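In practice, a research group might receive sequence data for several interacting partners and want a quick structural hypothesis before committing to experiments. The following worked case mirrors that situation: the sequences arrive first, and a predicted assembly follows.
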Amino acid sequence: MAEVRLNKVVKRYGKLETVHGIDLEIAHNEFVVLVGPSGCGKSTTLRMIAGLEEITGGTISIGSRVVNALPPRERNISMVFQSYALYPHMSVRDNLGFGLKIANMAAPEIEKRVNEAAEILGLGPYMDRLPANLSGGQRQRVAMGRAIVRNPDVFLFDEPLSNLDAKLRGQMRVEIKKLHQRVKTTVIYVTHDQVEAMTLADRIVIMRDGHIEQVGTPTEVFERPVNVFVAGFIGSPPMNQLDAVVRGQMAVLGDGTGVPLPAGLVLSEGQQVVLGFRPESFAPRGHSLHWEGATIAVSRPVVIAEPLGTETILFVELGGKDVQGKMLNPREVHPGEELEFTLDLSRLHVFDKASGRRL
Amino acid sequence: MSAMTIEKPWQRWAIRIGVFLAMLVLTVPGLWVMLTAFRPNIEVLARPAIWIPQNWTLDNFARLFGLSASQQGLPVAQYFINSLVISLTSTLVAIVIGMAGGYAFARFSFRGKGPMFLAFMLSRTVPGVALSLPLFMLWARLGIIDTSFGLILVYMAINIPFTIWLTDGFFRQIPIDLSEAAQIDGCTRWQAFWKIEFPLARSGLASAAIFAFLTSWNEYALASQLTRTTASKTMPVGLMDFTAQFTVDWTGMSAMAVLIIIPALVLTFIVQKHLIAGLTFGGVK
Amino acid sequence: MTTTTEPYSRPTTSEGITAFFRSQKAIPYLLLLPAILVILSVVLVPLLLSFWTSFTNYNLTKPDTLYNFIGLRNYQRLMGNAEFWWAFGRTFLFITIALNLEMLLGLGLALLVNKITWGQRTLRTIMMFPMMFSPILVGFQFKYIFNDSIGLVNNALFDLGLISQPIPWLVDGTLANFSIIFAEIWMSTSIFAILLLAGLMALPREPIEAAKVDGCNSWQVFRHITLPFLMPFVYIAMTIRSLDVARAYDMVRIMTNGGPAGRTELLWTLMTRTGYQNSQMGMANAMGYVSIILSIVFTFYFYRKLTAARTFMGGAQ
Ligand SMILES: Nc1ncnc2c1ncn2[C@@H]1O[C@H](COP(=O)(O)OP(=O)(O)O)[C@@H](O)[C@H]1O
Ligand SMILES: [Mg+2]
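A structural hypothesis for the assembly, expressed as tokens:
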């Protein structure tokens, strides 16, 4: 059993603290994605789990062992680096078998495991090539193969797809998911790309500035972001966020538009709030995704239209800011054209303006 | 690059002629000395000058090694062996020590790193002649003047800073990820170094070694003061002794010059690519 | 590395040191230890000794004089010694002229070779030829080539009918200085040429193309794009060269040894003569210190420029 437990983990470089006491429990065989803007401490956290960075404070345990003092080789983990870190002077075969050889495994057994991994990843034809003679996608596969041959308790990925072009990234994402279904192990995966996080994760850990903002399944973090940061980070295009003031049962936007607040939400009169709604919930009449629940309608001229094929993103002004709406089954829209938009009130997110927290 | 500016034909020819002349100036003096080594003395001294060699001879070399009838005063064979032993030993030690230092600079951040690097480089700045004065006094007290050991020690010290500079550059070119990946794959840091980083830095290290060898092989200022007899005199010192003799033996000296230049020629040729890469990388990046 | 915040008994000094050398933090220091020890014992300790000696009137033939402290008198006498000032001035001039000419010629050569489309590798190998020669060999070579009776230069001038009397290249003071500078430049121009060529080859194309699109002519492109980009390479070459300018000593030693009549005397030749021939080690070490400071000043100057240029480049990329 290889659950990973982080307990008040702190990282300091000299006086500079970059990870501020994070707690996290990762279950056996769970696929957890650490996501956040770059520089927020994801890699540092992952590298502390790997044993590549010293842990300044707190404890990390893998299975039942506290691993703080253990070097990487005694943690039974494997890691895929952003740069792949393939050994340039070794063939693909030797790259895959290197860890096993270091562990003094018998040659026939190495051979067997390497071939298995090669089979899973379709590396057969390239086994005797040097990494320099492989394409980006192939290198990526070798890096993954090198990680799986050793049967580790925990797989660590540090932005493994960020050096690939968009199309290949999509393919590899699927492959990683398949791989996880096939070789069940605990996976900790770091990325700054929220799409990768959403598609791969059992649970997402959203980080900012060395803190964990929210932990939850993709649906949870999408449907119920705990604060404006998570709300803005997850989802594409991002959630619209408008400042408003509470007046009775209404939130009044900067331009005087009143938006009815969800029932059961008790707010004080005059409270400053942030209203959040996703572009999906703000669509021209007849082109929206959801129909259940209450809506309000506003007419606005379109500022810019971005046709994407299956949908068109529309920019309009609301509450003194540009907001984005999403038009499904799109028709051609010209800038300046006035459309009637419906805002789905059942999917309204209300945050406290001062603390940014969800209300 | 050259495709970017379109030159007129006369410009192209001017460039070619310029390059040709420059190459001529760079090579002719050296080649002339080498040529002299294979010519008899009378031909070299002839008036008017004989430009095209009439007779080729190996006699000059034979004389150097005392193999010919007309005996030669200098024990060149012994000098050659001294030079070889001193250069090889000092190079080997300097590379091992310098590599450790270069690795420390390339891979660790530690207190006093910058000043320490500068201090190493400045230690290399001390002119050999200036250093020879106190070393002469000190080595005499320690009884290691006129020994190979004394000179080996000095050449180690001369070569370590530059080896550090070069290997620091070479190791920094190797992504740190590789060592980390190896450690995750089950290596200790020590194993990761030997199995991954060392093989990758090997060609760079080889050129650092050759550079160190050449520095020792060619050194004169210190050797001339710290050696006294055939026990430790090196080739450059021997060449200088030659000029101090009464009759100037140009062909004999040229032959000795060829003996000095050939190892340098071969080795420099081997490392030229890495050397340039090492020097520029170490400095720019 | 303490991860605990609980109070603990303060380690004694010896425990602290042992603990330090066992910890991760000690690794770089341990790796550097052998290098530091060697440099300390073979460079620093001798330098301290020569520093002390420069304040004594130590004479090699009278060992006791090593403890004869005479304060700054060696330095004072140097200040009043015309011979020293001549050597100092000549050395300074020599370094300045040599480095600048080598830089200019090296730049010119690199630009020319860079224009040649094929055979560049061969040309580069040929350019390395002088770098293989040790200074003592270069000295010998030019002693031979500039020899007035059988030297290549005079022979050629004779046979071309340009002269009827041999030119005393190494015997006349002015000509001897010229010959030495020539030899020095022959020896070291290649270093500049090769490093600058490497720089030219690493030159990114886009800024140049952008400048051309913006209407710069060849000279303006060179002045505003190529040259600034090359500067770090110039400084590397300058730093490397000023590290061992003093190897010119070997060359001069064999070519003229300071003669004729001291007309090519450099600080380095004067120093050895004073120390070994006249046995005035105290005085020689004082000169040694002057020469060390000279070398350090030159190297440090270019090293600083290099660091500045490097950060500048880092920002641009
Ligand atoms: N060796 C280091 N020394 C000082 N600061 C560092 C070091 N490594 C990373 N940092 C800082 O720690 C923070 C987190 O970095 P990292 O974990 O790499 O972020 P990311 O989430 O993009 O992976 C960054 O602000 C970075 O500047
Ligand atoms: Mg990162």
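Before designing any experiment, note the following. DSSP finds 13 helices and no strands in chain C. Residues A 42-43, 159 surround magnesium ion (ligand 2) (CB under 6 Å).
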